Amino acid sequence: MSQTAKALDVVQPHGLRPIMEVGREFGLLESEMISYGPYKAKVSLDVLKRLSSRPDGQLVVVTAITPTRAGEGKTTSAISLTQGLGRIGTRVALCLRQPSTGPLFGIKGGGTGGGLAQIVPMEEINLHFTGDIHAVEAAHNLLAAVIDAAIFHGQLEIGPSFITWPRTLDVNDRALRHIVTGLGGDEHGVPRESSFIIAAASEIMAILALASDLEDLRQRVGRIIVAQRKDGTFVTAEDLRVAGAMTVLLKDALLPNIVQTMEGQPTLVHAGPFGNIAHGNNSLLADQIALKLADVVVTEAGFGADLGLEKFAHIVARYGHLRPSAALLVATVRALKSHGGLPAARLTEENLDALRRGAENLAAHIDIVRAFGMRCIVAVNRFPSDTDRELALVKELAMQFGADDAVINDGFTRGGEGSVELGRAVLGATRNGSNFAPIYPPTTPIREQIQTLARRLYGAADVEFLPECQKRIDWLTERGMGTLPVCMSKTHLSLSHDPSLKARPRGFTLPIRNVYPSAGAGFIVALAGDIQLMPGLGKEPAYTRIDIDPSGRIAGLS
Fold first, then answer.
1. 3-class DSSP state for residue 85?
2. Residue 188 binned pLDDT confidence (cut-offs 50, 70, 90)
3. Helices 420-429/74-87 angle, 10° precision
């Protein structure tokens, strides 16, 4: 009996198998798993040494069209695809980012899928899990405290306006976007303006997701730039002699976490960098471990193909030497009708005209996938309000736009059974190897990278580099960072920089306000919009639906 068949016999929709059993069937040795209770564990990096000569499996990246604010079920689709592949006997593994409690208690709720396509134990994954986000917060805030202590003790002579390192918290709190620290008199420090960002936006989270081993993690942490001296030189974590202590805090967080889908397939959940300001993908180590143990690995990239998939191609694949063979592009009827100009209150109505207009967005994202040489399978994620005519039209249009296949996905309501056809389509797309290639080589200068992304992927006619940005690019180039990959910071709600521009905007000018180095992560962030690094809470946040009963049963997290 296959690994997957045994999993389906043992796991009922709401049951869990012992994680050590899941890991053993995945191919891990018991000595390579560190248990965090019966249903979650960390994976030792020793597995990569043991299996270094084993060929990698096939890699499938899950991406999406431009979403609405509520999301289109991309994580649910990634999970259901994994379950569907399991149903047809594929040795499959899933890799996902760790959910942040910011969106968990804010607008989106949990990040573990939905319906019968979830990873479990859902409550633990969504909350404290194995403490990785706490470790990121601790390391980040230790560095912030060291900066202020060094100024207080006269060890760092620098003006407050030259400090670029904020503090962090994994809760949405708009009141902390702009703060003043050091108040209360001389004994409390030097007063200065500062800020908080959400933990997912911390450079340390991006570093955790890109580090290849403990030594690489230590070097990357040391390269973090926290301030700039008046002579233009950088102050780094290494300069402040705190990089070693920060890495000690991150030592266990570097190890990927293993859990399971509701149908028993192994799932590595690790790291959670922001998709707007960072690269929006799970850890490179999780992908690399899964590729050594599974025939097909499903990995999810944040937001649409213009963000997560592009950054996977130019940052993750570059540093990890990965070659994805196919992409699953998630589309929904409601998102396409929104792009077609239908008001939110009417998205549940059948409207084929709005659907056709909005389908230009689907066409653009198919073109982005094809630009990287990847085969494209469109998954139309079914919602209860979708009509058969609307679903059929999206499938038809997807094929007209150049998709290799288009499949209705019923994973939410039927689990793996509802994604068997999708699994077969994706498996077929992986059978001919990979033609993946970035759209520019790694030696491309910063300006040219940005211009290529803007024109070829976003549909811009031109790029405007504001004067301060021009100087900054030259300044970074002089300091040897002129060919680091660009990580675009822009809205996820449009292919452009403007969230109000829906469907497939063309002919616009993309403004680049500034660039700055994320030296530890190894990329240059280009600011193409005003992205909030600390989200705020709305009038009816998700936390209002979350509660616990006297027996300890939690409601409202999924």
1. helix
2. confident
3. 80
Residue 119 β-bridge partners: 261
Distance CA 511, CA 77 (A): 34
CATH 3.30.1510.10 fits 132-247, yes or no: yes
**What are the DSSP calls for 2-21, one per residue?**
-HHHHHHHH--TT----HHH
Nearest-CA neighbor of 146 among 189, 200, 206? 189
pLDDT of the residue at 532: 82
Cis peptide before 121 (omega within 30 of 0): yes
Secondary element (H or E) of residue 118 = strand 117-120
Q: Which helix (H) or strand (E) holds 329?
A: strand 326-331
Assigned superfamily of 446-527: Formyltetrahydrofolate synthetase, domain 3 (3.10.410.10)
| Letter string b/e over residues 4-34, b meaning 16 or more CB atoms within 10 A of that residue's CB | beebbeebeeeebbebbebbebbbbeeebbe
Token pair belonging to 484: 């680091």
Two tokens, residue 502: 């829906």
Pick the CATH number of 3-130+253-429 from 3.20.20.70, 3.20.20.100, 3.40.220.10, 3.40.50.300: 3.40.50.300
Query: For the chain, what are the domain ranges?
Result: 3-130+253-429, 132-247, 446-527
**Distance (Å, rounded) from C-alpha 183 to C-alpha 458?**
45
pLDDT value at residue 120: 96
CA distance 113 to 116: 8
Tell the burial category of 480 from Cβ atoms under 10 Å away from its Cβ (0-12, 13-18, 19+): exposed
CB 254 within 8 A of CB 136: no
- pTM over the 0.85 mark: yes
Q: Does residue 230 sit in helix, strand or coil? A: coil
Q: Please name the residues in contact with 178: beta carbons below 8 A apart, sequence gap of 6 or more.
A: 193, 195
The predicted structure's pLDDT at residue 105: 87
Which pLDDT band, with edges at 50, 70 and 90, does 538 fall under?
confident
